[in-house]
Amino acid sequence: MDQLITSFGACADSDFKNTQAIQQAIDEVAKAGGRVIVPPGVWRTGMLQLRSHVELHLQRGAVLLGTNDPEDYPSVDVVEKGILQSRRAFDRRMIFGCEVEDVAVTGPGTIDGNGGCADTEFSRGAEGRPNNIQFVASRRVTVEGLHLRCAGSWMMQVLACEDVSLSGLRIWNHGNKTNDGMDIDGSRDVRIQNCSIDSHDDALVFKSTGPKSCREIVVSNCTLRSNCHGIKFGTESVGGFENIRVANCLIGRSRKPSPMAGYPQGRPSITGCALECTDGGTMRNISISGLVVEEALAPIFIKLGNRHDRRIPGEDFQGTGKIENIHIDNILARQVGPFCCSVTGMPEEPIRGVQLSNLQISFEGGLVPEKILSEVPENNADYPEINMFGGQVAKKAGKVLPAWGFFFRHVQGLSVQNCQLTCRKPDPRSMIVKDQVTSADG
Question: Which of 59, 187, 242, 416 shows the greatest Cβ crowding within 10 Å of its Cβ?
Answer without folding.
Answer: 187
